[in-house]
Amino acid sequence: MINREIEGEIALLRTEFPIVTILGLRQSGKTTLSKKVFPDYEYISLEDLDHREFAQNDPRSFLSRYNGEVIFDEIQRVPSRRSTSTSSNIG
Asked: From CA 27, how far away is CA 73, in angstroms rounded?
């Protein structure tokens, strides 16, 4: 495994922020890096259909299931949910 200079920076960011996002090209080592920097974190891949459907259908319950530190991998597979509420003008 290649040692990366960024490992220490990511660990430091985690002490300052509740969420750290790692972005990069496909197959560039983001998952490996995450698991190396945070070896004690639970790992959840949203490539897993059961996890993905749960996250899509009931995001609050999905997130409440994980109280500790978690790595959510492939989170882009869960599209953002938009509000479907409508407003009307009464005049």
From this structure: 13
